[in-house]
Amino acid sequence: WGFFRRRGDIDGYQHNRPAIRGTHPAHRQAGETDEGKAMMEDRVATAIQRVRFHAQSSRNLFGDMPVWVAFSGGKDSQVVERIVKLSGVPYRLHYNVTGIDPPEVMKFIREYYPECQWDKPEKYMRSLILYHHMLPTQKARYCCQALKEGNGEGLVITGVRWAESAKRKTRAMFRYCQKNLYYILNPIIDWSEDDVWNFLESEGLSHCSLYDEGFKRIGCVMCPLSGTAGMIRGIQRWPKIANAWYRWTEELLAHWHEEGNHLDWIHASQVWDWWVWREKYTRADEDTQCGLYDG
Predict the structure, then answer these.
(1) Which of 14, 116, 117, 258 has the lowest CB atom count within 10 Å?
(2) pTM of the model
(3) How is the beta sheet containing 67-70 ordered, strand by strand?
(4) Low-confidence residues of the chain, pLDDT below 70?
């Protein structure tokens, strides 16, 4: 990693820890008033009703198949899991294994959601890189489709919210996924981030420790959607996973050379440098994370 250490930007990169939303009194103020509590109760009741209504419709189509709750270990999927539990609808919790998620996320799921089923992909990231002959980028998000969007059957429930990004403001609360042949329900789609934290606190639910470190979203380490700053943060926070990414880059370059491709890149460090730094002066994708079932 010597070529990285020469860049003052990385040595000077500062990790700012904001107050944890939902634990600071300023973020709980709305939920602590009578009006705020009533609004929160209405949101919860509405979300529960959405789950019950669409689960009944799903039973008419698919029989007694439990609903499929997509679970990432993040705060939104925690809310959805509890909402479905409160609804009384039979469900199964599913986590899509990527192989590049933060260890803290996987530890959290094992400890607090031991009933969760871990669904493994047909190809992990190394195989995907060699299969597609390229590293994933913001515009070529083949990894999202392969690792996070394919699983599911019947009625799939996710924690997608409009407030997460401009892209997600276009999502429907309920839709049919023609590509994967299942229905998708987003019961908390109209919730704010404060709603999410207030609900988790009211239910006494623990959250992944990464939020306490200031991470706003938790997902794949060095996801290109996080931009240069997010990728550098991933290198610093999880060097073992970053080393795995670098080894895959070396294999990719060797694969290119074996195919007889004439490239300006001779060393893997050049490819890596382009991949991490090429969008240094552009804005990161505001989603900052590939979402479950974005397809």
Answers:
(1) 14
(2) 0.84
(3) 117-119, 91-96, 67-70, 155-157, 182-185, 174-177
(4) 1-32, 262, 279-295
